[in-house]
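Model: You mentioned two targets. I'll fold them one after the other.
Researcher: Yes, keep them separate.
Model: Target one:
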Amino acid sequence: MSVSNIKKEGIFPNKFLWGGATAANQFEGGWNEGGKGESIADHMTGGSAISPRKFTKQIAHDEHYPSHEAVDFYSRYKEDIQLLGEMGFKIFRMSINWTRIYPNGDESVPNAQGLDFYKKVFLECKKYGIEPLVTISHYEMPFALSANYGGWLNRKCIEFYLKFCETIFTEFKGMVKYWITFNEMNCMQYSFGEYLSGGFIPEEDGPLDLFIPDTKEALSKRYRALHNQLVASAKAVNLAHSLDPENKIGCMLASSCIYPMTCNPKDILEAQKMVQLRNYYCGDVLVRGEYPFFAERFWEENDINLSVEDEDFETLRTGTVDYFSFSYYMSGCMSADPDILKSGGNVFASVNNPYLSASDWGWQIDPEGLRYYLNEIYGRYRIPIMIVENGLGAYDKVDDDGEIHDQYRIDYLKAHIEQMAEAIKDGVDLIGYTAWGCIDLISASTGEMDKRYGFVYVDTDNDGSGSFTRIKKDSFHWYKKVIETNGEDL
């Protein structure tokens, strides 16, 4: 059943879900308060674009762990939700810290203090008419499940995840309707996701190199863990629907459109291959309930053994999602020439596009690519779509007048919203948009505060020093107007 079917007045549907997005490990803080246990994020030190974050098995007193305090939503949730309400948010994407509910992940009884905290958060959202959109797992796996069970390589994590799901579906029934099973599920296919998504613990303390060359052994481990997550997601969908027919469960992928570098057929085939693996491998399972036609050859050529159990395919077939959601920040180009590919500046081993500009962090800005991607995904899956991450990471400075004049962010978002409108006119069933990092938060990849996305500035630096005072940026007032006019006044 569609979750939209909304009458349109103007370009955007009249109940379009405007809002913003955060993740608990980057936003919440309170890492050891209220009975919370240690997550994998809590074992990652700060870093930078040139100095990787480090992993430590034991929390060290002489290291800075950005997730421990983050931007202190845990203490300031009322103030922060009031700011979201002032902007007119219809929806707020957030995640639940798994370790705030089950500190080690394998307990038989949930942590009552954690449940109480999120109930207060959801009631505060309700006060301002904000619909929570909850990501169940967003790079916040209990560290104990990684250390003691091997993370998502172990099928027992499916049981632990489902117990977590049953608890929050039951406890927050009537408070939360929109859920996402896993954040950026397809990141597991890349080295970036081994620790953050899979919970694979490094053998030794040291730098977490999030972008390393693939080996067949590494690929086999990643895709086996990904299969376990896909099964867990499907089971969670069925569980959510059985506990409350009002629940709407979505998937979430890290997405971008990929262009061939040239019209050389070899480049076109390389681009197609990347599109298939990045955008459709997980998407087909989550939406269509089966692995795509190209998967078997990929498994054979890379010696991948998924360790499938007999009932898995039936589980995947029945546990398909209600809506498709994704993050979009950039596009990239693919080349069959290995020398050109080595020179690539984008993540996921793609090549910079000479026709596009880039952010301060080298992420290429491509609003038209968002329209292209929306058309491709909707044409393939024909279910409602939400864009649940999109935004510009930039260096924001408080000017002498005490204000943050971030016209560059307004320009970025305006261009993307314009292309969203074009996609809706194309016929895409787009039902929501949550700009990433609506209040400044720490970076997942580097742990920095310098890379800011929010409409609200948070006074803290890369070392966690500052007053944590919230300051509205120019983009705050602009986005409020966008929501008030339902996207008509940009």
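Model: Target two:
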Amino acid sequence: MTQLAGRTAFVTGGANGVGLGLARALLAEGCKVAIADVREDSIEAALKLLENQHVMGVPLDVASRESFAQAADRLEAELGPVSLLFNNAGVNLFQTIDDSSYDDWDWLLGVNLHGVINGVTTFVPRMKERGLGGHVCNTASMAAFLCNGAPGIYNTTKFAVRGLSESLRYSLAAHGIGVSMLCPGLVKSQIYASDAIRPEALKAGAKEVNTEFVSNLEKLHEAGMEPEVIAARTLEAIQENRFYIFSHPEFKDELAEVFDEVLADFREYPEDPGLADRLQIEAGRRASYKKAREAANAL
């Protein structure tokens, strides 16, 4: 996709951080933009900053399928058909999996994974039916590749977004719709304050917020990459139809180390009785996978 001007874009988590940076960049490219966020006061503040007649705000809990459908109808009636979808909303919880509750899981899965699923399921059928092409960009994270004990649930959701996005890229190539996955590192954003927007219905299993820890996180995020820089690199990658958008080049060496460790765990085993038949089956799967990658890359 080389032409962005004139298209309508929908950006979740669009009132601050990467989402707001994307909105600015898209408007500069001549797009009409709808920014969605769960915080209505943040939407109002963002709209004042953007000051553009081709932008609108949409209050939205991305975990709600019904709200997503209503938001889609409303914004498309005002701005036209969406052909640029940015599933960007995300929250974080800085604790380990073994120290987490069902409410913790439901909260992060609802926003970070189901929010992407809801965006795709709401808008992609419309994009396919209209036949105008377009692009879907799902925000994952370097946490889709790099893990630690904490934040365990966050890692889980981002690994899932990675698998969803790659599979979606291959299925949508035939419809002229590209798919990318944004994997930022440290960003100047408010994700450190995720606890402030946790739904009341999912607080029963929550641990008491460590305000000192949150304060330290805020200082770390002040050193994060500017959202406008990430947005510029994202739109460049979309126009080049790249799948992986690695906005933070400082992770390249570490990712190479991890991939080397993965490959090092393969072993040369004695040939087992079913190997010959499996190799034939896998040769077909491998050829199909390569064909899918080539088709998606050729958009």
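Researcher: Noted. Anything on target two?
Model: The chain has one domain: 8-297.
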